[in-house]
């Protein structure tokens, strides 16, 4: 970061900037300092007006330089009170009405700093994991020059600031640190604008960075690492040679932080999430066979041996396809738009190893007995699970997971489009995080994010473990 000075009327601001960013980003920073809207600002250096699309360094901006700003701060005039019915309100007015009502307050959004919707949507869903926020709250930065420490610290600060501000928060420092730590997210096009990136890649890199830093003891965890406890899945993997039945199968343990939902299963389309997960856990690979002395086809089967506190599921919507053009053939990234339904409560039992199933049976059997007794006593349909979101280790695992977060992608191109985050609040209430514009939606809206057209379609799902709480 570099510090520059900006003179405006009789005031002078000291501003920390990234010289590789655009002038438009500097204008956004100056809005919070001066109250002058970006479109009303005119920035000048040595008599020349700076253009929004210019990169600061290329425009001649450097450490300790002074530039001039012209523009008048916006005055907000109190409008005359006018009676409006709810159906006549704009989405923005509805959001404000929710804030001022006795209902669920509308939380703060994140300002888009140039194709950062992939990051904004991902972070808003991660905020639905209170255990992560708690662990970050206890984190201390010891070496500011260590990028992994710096990014984890900035994640902590970002979560804290979102909770404290009453309006949309602009994540300047976090975006800069993310791009510095992972140059992939700092890629720009021919005009110097930052490219759209992948939400799953952002999630993976942020969690992996936090994993290296949050090695604090967890009383109810199994690994002593917060990220592994919250998101780590352990698989029991079997690899069996299809061409040599007498060759003994290979057994191994593998780890991941997500389940894959295959949408196009070798030409067989998938319509429902469990079918796609099942396809993601079984497949074929080619490798060297010692018994045959050549490459052979093997069937790889995975079963879950340990379930985490939170389950991330990725829809494999972006694939590489061979395309032909005048210049020849090449692989291009394409998007699968197919509709795939997903449930509010996901049952992972069928995807588990026999050992884990035996463990889950205890909670499942007790839960079934309670539901049966409630049905007999009430003579009506039992209510949904009374278990749910207690701290880990206080209840019995059943393999059930409740949907609490969704990241969607809208658009037909894999390298563009728009990401939005959706997070569960309570009952039938969800929040839609469209960057800095946040609105309240319902569960029905969430289940309609299944795809099949040009509307927002689910790309990442976040499920929270449900635990059965025996009644004393």
Automatic annotation (TrEMBL):
Residue ranges of the region described as Disordered: 370-391
InterPro entries, alphabetized: Papain-like_cys_pep_sf, Peptidase_C19_UCH, Ubiquitin-like_dom, Ubiquitin-like_domsf, UBP14-like, USP, USP_CS
Positions of the USP domain: 108-466
Enzyme class name: hydrolase
Matching Pfam families: ubiquitin (PF00240), UCH (PF00443)
GO molecular function: cysteine-type deubiquitinase activity; proteasome binding
Keywords linked to the UniProt accession: Hydrolase, Protease, Thiol protease, Ubl conjugation pathway
Catalytic reaction annotation: Thiol-dependent hydrolysis of ester, thioester, amide, peptide and isopeptide bonds formed by the C-terminal Gly of ubiquitin (a 76-residue protein attached to proteins as an intracellular targeting signal)
Biased composition, class Basic and acidic residues, residue ranges: 370-388
GO biological process, one term: regulation of proteasomal protein catabolic process
Ubiquitin-like domain boundaries: 2-70
EC identifiers of the protein: 3.4.19.12
UniProt record similarity statement: Belongs to the peptidase C19 family.
Name listed for the protein in its UniProt record: Ubiquitin carboxyl-terminal hydrolase
Source organism per UniProt: Blepharisma stoltei
